[in-house]
Amino acid sequence: PDLGLSPAQIAEMRLAYGADSPLWRQYLHTLLAMLHGDFGYSLQAGLAVSSLIASNLPDTLSLALPAFLLAVALAF
To answer: Which residues does UniProt call coiled coil (predicted)?
Structure first.
């Protein structure tokens, strides 16, 4: 799609986000970063993904834990 960007701006964005590297290198870099707890930066929220996960974890656990316990109880 036409985003109204010049070729120089597109090249600058590709460089900034690492899209100029081969796909295997991008994958390896992302995998290693995730293993170290770096999940990147959310363009939509404007925050680190790890902070978004941390802020939503209590709500997620409050839903998942009772569901898991109910599933275990029904399994036996």
So the answer is: none
Residue pair 41/49 in contact by the 8 Å Cβ criterion: yes
Domain boundaries, the chain: 7-75
Q: What does R_g of the chain's alpha carbons equal in angstroms?
A: 19
For residue 50, give both structure tokens: 């790890």
Dihedral (C-alpha) 25, 42, 14, 37: value to the nearest 10 degrees? -20
pLDDT in tens, 44-68: 999 999 999 999 999 999 999 999 9
Place of tokens 């970063």: 33
In whole angstroms, give the CA distance from residue 58 to residue 39: 19
Contact 40, 33 (CB under 8 A): yes
